Amino acid sequence: MDRNQNRLFRWFWLLNGDDTGATLVLFPILLTIILGLLALGINVGLTYIIDAKLATAVDAAAFAGVQALPVSPSDAEAYAYEYAAKNGIPAENVEVEISDDNSEIKVIATKDVDYFLAGLFGISPGLVRKEARASVKITTTNDAAPWGVLPEDFDKGEEYVLKEGGEPIYDGDGDPIKDSDNNPVLDETPLAEDWFGALLFPGNEEDCMYRGAIRFGYQGQLIKASRYSESGPYTGILSVGDVVKIRPGLMARTEQGVKDPWDTDWSHTGVNLAIGACNHTPPCTADNYVEDCLRVIIVPIVEMISDDEVRIVGFGRFFLEEFDELHHRAWGTYLGGY
Ligand SMILES: [Zn+2]
């Protein structure tokens, strides 16, 4: 009989015997066991509560942060800290990581747990750690029309202005006043200072390439390459989050010397070329179209970030309906996101 068995035997003996000393001997042991169980219960509960609190906080923080991605990683970070704090986890307990391509946010929250009666049982303080991730799909196209529309709640099947124009000015007889190129003179209503929604894609500085991008979508310098046998460094690929220069002005007419009818209005001829390129039978409509028809265009949805730059926040697919000559506006029916 080893020592432990011997001790166990003695306890039983004491319990069975009518010796009040047993109570004295047993009391500290039982108290320890009871306290131990109590501490275990409390500590499990405590850990569970902290765990749940951290989980709620990191979920809320990641969800709030991802709303700003991929456009603004700094906002994403700020939102994450803000929502962690709103859920009771201060910044010093929170770590936010954003992926290099700004598509994913990871929020980690940690908290030390001082266990109940930890000292008594020799348990060291614990650390509860929770993390949550949220990501956005980065959308890319190599087929964008050279226009930017501002974000709104686009409804499928509704028509939208894809390139702004303005209201004509009428003469005393109620006829629109025309300029020397026979274009109506507009009471201009730009989206921003001298900006009517045209974008200047890299490598597409020439006006004819703006027109080409309406017809074919932005192809980098492909349009130029086909005409001049030049190749350039531009891929034509645009992604959500990209910053693009605006192309100021109405794009309505050339400055000097109209060479041919195509050059009188870049937007108008671009739209007409795209619409005219539909050779499907029956002709495509917004309700019934062939997916790769040139009338189906991808338009960047943008927000202005400076006087002459916008950032792409998404892409919309539109069916190119018409160019309204009088107002110099291009219209398209929203087909859905891209
Ligand atoms: Zn078609």
Task: Summarize the topology.
Elements: H1 3-16, H2 21-66, H3 73-86, E1 94-98, E2 104-113, H4 118-121, E3 126-135, E4 140-141, E5 159-163, E6 166-168, E7 186-188, E8 199-200, H5 207-216, H6 222-228, E9 238-239, E10 243-246, H7 266-276, E11 296-304, E12 309-324, E13 329-337
Helix pairs in contact: 2-3, 5-7
Zinc ion (ZN) binds next to loops.
- Strand pairing plus helix content: what structural class? alpha+beta
Strand content: 15-25%
> Ligands in the structure?
zinc ion
Element-by-element helix/strand order:
HHHEEHEEEEEEHHEEHEEE
Span between N and C termini? 80 Å
Number of strands: 13
User: How many distinct helices?
Assistant: 7
Mean pLDDT score: 84
Low-confidence stretches: 222-231
Shape estimate: elongated
Largest sheet properties: 6 strands, antiparallel
Count of structural domains: 2
Q: Which value, in Å, is the CA radius of gyration?
A: 35 Å
Percentage of residues assigned to helices: 25-40%
A few lines on this structure:
The chain is an alpha+beta fold.
Descriptive overview:
A hairpin with a 4-residue loop joins strand 11 and strand 12 (309-324). With 338 residues, the protein is α+β, with helices and mostly antiparallel strands. Strands 5, 8, 10, 11, 12 and 13 form a six-stranded antiparallel beta sheet that branches. Helices cover 31% and strands 24% of the residues. The protein has helices at residues 3-16, 21-66, 73-86, 118-121, 207-216, 222-228, 266-276; strands spanning 94-98, 104-113, 126-135, 140-141, 159-163, 166-168, 186-188, 199-200, 238-239, 243-246, 296-304, 309-324, 329-337. Helix 2 runs antiparallel to helix 3 (73-86) and helix 5 (207-216) packs parallel to helix 7. Mean pLDDT is 84; it is low at 222-231. Bound molecules: zinc ion. The site of zinc ion has 7 residues, from loops.
